[in-house]
Amino acid sequence: MMLTQERVLEILKEAGVLLEGHFLLTSGKHSNRYLQCAKIFRNTKYSEELCAALAEQFQDEHVDVVIGPAMGAVQMAYEVSRALKCENYFTEREEGKMVLRRGFEVHPGMRVLLVEDVVTTGGSVKEVYELVKAAGGIVVGIGSIVDRSGGNAGFEVPFKSVIKVDVEAWQPQDCPLCKEGKIPVVKPGSRKLPTK
Question: What is the pTM of this model?
Answer without folding.
Answer: 0.82
